[in-house]
Amino acid sequence: MLTLVDLGVLRAVEVAADGTVEVAITPTYSGCPAMAAMRDDLVRELRGAGFERVRVRVALDPAWTTDWITPRGRAALAAAGISPPGPAPRSAGPVALTLLPARRSVRCPRCDSADVALTSEFGSTACKALYRCLACLEPFDHVKEI
């Protein structure tokens, strides 16, 4: 459904003179439980393609942002019933901590209505919020802007 390139997680692929492939990936957020699965999938696929030596490193700087999701990735999320993120918030200085839900511009991925309501700030994963469309009444996840 969604590749690591489309998600913006795959940062670099380099082949050394000795044939070692080094891949750099960035987690979508600190403690992302999918990192081990992504690493294992990359190693399996590259070894399956004939590369015997594979090294996957985690690149934390710069931090991942939802702005790195490609247009194809955003379309794939919407096709799967997941509302893609809008532009990530920008800040030139300190970020104020609020305990209120973030204000987002969200559209239903099923009927494209903007008449939606936040059900829970946490959806099926910590990086998603749960919404309900007030037009078609369907619940859906929204990828949080980071």
Automatic annotation (TrEMBL):
Residues 3-57 form the MIP18 family-like domain. Residues 98-144 form the PaaD zinc beta ribbon domain. SUPFAM superfamilies: Fe-S cluster assembly (FSCA) domain-like. InterPro entries: Fe-S_Maturation_MIP18, FSCA_dom_sf, MIP18-like, PaaD-like, Zn_ribbon_PaaD. Pfam families: FeS_assembly_P, Zn_ribbon_PaaD. This is Phenylacetate-CoA oxygenase subunit PaaJ.
